[in-house]
Amino acid sequence: MSAVLSTAGLFVLTALAEIVGCYLPYLWLRKGASAWLLVPGLLSLMLFAWLLTLHPTASGRVYAAYGGVYVAAALAWLWLVDGVRPSLSDGIGVALCLAGTVVIMAGTRPG
Prior knowledge:
Blueprint: H1 2-31, H2 38-52, H3 59-80, H4 88-106
Helix pairs in contact: 1-2, 1-3, 3-4
């Protein structure tokens, strides 16, 4: 059970690093924020890439399973940061994505 929680926590941290790394350049390009935001944005994307390397399974499988967690984190970001409440269809979509994540990770085989 601790391995599952560890993997889930790592997925959440990875998703946050990716979202922050993409959101900061967005603020600069679309909202007129300082170009200096590109520096922490780049660092956040570097952290994202490094976090992906911490998973013990094959990278393609990790990317596929991580996708569901990213979708959930992105919609949480939409609500908490952008102030837009996700719709029922957003919630259903997240549930389907997370179900896919569970199926992929539960079926993981060594190698």
